[in-house]
Amino acid sequence: MSRGQDTPFGARLRRLREASGLTQEELAGRAVLSAKNISDLERGERRRPYPHTVRALADALELPEDERAALFAAVPKRGSGVRTVLAVAPEPTLPVPPTPLIGRDRELEEVTSFLRRRVVRLLTLTGTGGVGKTRLALEAARDAGESFPDGVAFVALAPLNNTEFVVPSVVRSFGLRVTAGQSPREALGAYLRAKRLLLALDNFEHLLEAAPDVSWFIETCPNLTVLVTSRAPLRVGGEQEYPVPPLELPSSTRDPGVEEVLGS
Hints:
Layout: H1 3-6, H2 9-19, H3 24-31, H4 35-42, H5 51-61, H6 65-73, H7 105-116, E1 122-126, H8 133-144, E2 152-156, H9 166-173, H10 184-192, E3 197-202, H11 211-220, E4 224-230, E5 239-243, H12 258-263
Parallel strand pairs: 1-4, 1-5, 2-3, 3-4
Helix pairs in contact: 3-4, 3-5, 5-6, 7-8, 9-10
């Protein structure tokens, strides 16, 4: 039995982290993950991390090839009797919301229409926190997916606390590995340049200083469309802003009638 199979993934990760002298928070910062992600993995609450997560951890720990291979081998296989190539399932391109989208028919149709237009390269959904920008973006990206033969990618930026992490996070979302002498931006450009793809960047408002990176995406990759959710526009060339309004409420919230509630 291999070393990766002898030791559970969480225990191996904890041993490697401690050997590197890192706290969970420090490892999370290096790997562009949350401290809770690290804690869940080490405690075994998440037993099957996705390949790009394992790759990010191995890079952050600066593991040699043998330890890197052992860390990948420690990820439990998904079922028995399945070919090795299918042992680890790919991460879904879009998160699956637990509830249907309600009350956004007009906005969904308009946003989807924008995404299908080749002339719209950067679409930013703006609005107050909690108004439903992310939910609308997910549904529109799913509906417009057929227009993007190379797929749809979703990158959650809320956990990031530094603009320098934006490009590396996008790189990791595609499972790319940066080679020696190559910057994350160069690796991403080489990968996306010929692809007709939709890239969704969620919760950009606290990283607005990274807006030039998004501008660089659309300038360098002529077939790429970027969908952003943010409380404020990015204010870069080519941006199409779409304000997301709050959902309507009954005229009287203290004692509304049945018809008013159903119509809101």
